[in-house]
Amino acid sequence: MKLLRNHTLLLISTLLLGLTACKGPQGDPGPKGDTGATGQTGAAGQTGATGATGTANVIYSDWINADWSLYDRPQLKQMKIIVPAINSTSIAKDAVLMYCKQFGTSSVYPLPSFGRWGNVWYSFEIANFTFNGLIVEVKSTDGHVLDEYETTALRGNRFRYVIIPGSIRAGRKAAVDYSNYEEVKKAYNLPD
């Protein structure tokens, strides 16, 4: 009898185990529940500082002291300024401008010009064949010997170049008077 009871228990255990291991076909999913409430909106972040207006890829120098080391004679002087952005492909389409400051005035003069002196001619040329840059020249137009007020950095003679790429020059800034330094400075946001 004990044996029969053990077999019966074994048979019942096996049947129960078999029934729990078998699964029938899965039923359809129930209806979708309601969406939960939306959480509170977080606080807005602080507004960042306004950035400086760009210069639209305009290339410009600081004010460069006169240094007549390329050619220095009593009635004619030249200095060179290395400008890597100047090359044979850029000069055909870009506007290359040069300005000068001189002794005893706050005015800025475009080159070429007499500046503040009626008998001294200031000019520049692009020198991309010998080096990438500019040659600035000052010469006496009446034969007098150039003096320190007309030429030296000690007396405030400084030069600055501004290169405006052709695509920008032909665009919205086309109406800028390039001979007016203040207008160029404002139009292209140049620091002084």
Mind sketching the topology for me?
Layout: H1 2-21, E1 59-60, E2 64-65, E3 71-73, E4 76-82, E5 95-101, E6 108-110, E7 120-126, E8 133-140, H2 148-151, E9 158-164, H3 166-169, H4 181-187
Antiparallel strand pairs: 1-9, 2-9, 3-4, 4-8, 5-6, 5-9, 7-8
Describe this protein's structure:
This is Collagen-like protein. It comes from Spirosoma validum. There is one protein chain. The chain has helices at residues 2-21, 148-151, 166-169, 181-187; strands spanning 59-60, 64-65, 71-73, 76-82, 95-101, 108-110, 120-126, 133-140, 158-164. With 192 residues, it is α+β, with helices and mostly antiparallel strands. The strands form two sheets. Strands 1, 2, 5, 6 and 9 form a five-stranded antiparallel beta sheet that branches. The protein has a four-stranded antiparallel beta sheet with strand order 3-4-8-7, with no helix packed on it. Mean pLDDT is 79; it is low at 6-22 and 50-54.
Write a compact overview of the structure shown.
This protein is α+β, with helices and mostly antiparallel strands and 192 residues long. Helices cover 18% and strands 24% of the residues.
Q: Based on CA inertia axes, which overall geometry fits?
A: elongated
What structural class do you assign from the helix and strand content?
A: alpha+beta
What is the count of helical runs? 4
Order of helices and strands: HEEEEEEEEHEHH
Main beta sheet, described?
5 strands, antiparallel
Proportion of strand residues: 15-25%
Organism: Spirosoma validum
Keywords: Signal
Protein name: Collagen-like protein
